[in-house]
Amino acid sequence: MRYLLGGALKVVGSGTGAWREAAWPLVAAIAVGVAVAGWMRPVGHVQALTSLADNAFAVCTVPLDGTNEGVFILDFETGDLSGAVLNPATGRFGAAYKHNILADLGFKPGQLKNPRFLLVSGVIELRQPAVPVASSVLYVTDSTTGATAVYGIPLNAPQAGQPIASKLLPLDIAKPRGGGPARPGR
Description:
Blueprint: E1 2-5, E2 8-11, H1 16-39, E3 51-53, E4 57-63, E5 69-75, E6 80-87, E7 92-100, E8 117-123, E9 133-142, E10 148-154, E11 164-167, E12 169-174, E13 181-182
Parallel strand pairs: 7-11
Antiparallel strand pairs: 1-2, 3-4, 4-5, 5-6, 6-7, 8-9, 9-10, 10-12, 12-13
């Protein structure tokens, strides 16, 4: 019988000893595979969150539930935080969100000059929210003061294929310079 082992052709006889000699590399490979598979553990659920900014806008993606994600854009000039979610059935944006963050971060009308913001998302399971919310939140930070506002993302069921427009839910504000956490509107 002829076997290709380790790149070299080897001719062995047809007796019982020849079979053992030819089969041991296969048995060894299976044993190593079983041992390695036993040591491997599942990694768990992995999510990719993205965030990017330039001088005028910040954008990030955020998981909303087990299958969908949203994209959120912060306009530095206006302070508008807008978001959209693709409808998986139509491939078109089926949900929209909007909230102006300026008052939440302590800006007064006309005060905004050369604003700098950061926008990132985080994953959290909020317990007992007033309305159903996504398993993620949005954090907006004023880069000049460090004040950070966090927003919940409401989950609304579409009405017969109609687009949904919702307001983001201000949850809390942290002010590292000149104060601790402060609730929106207080």
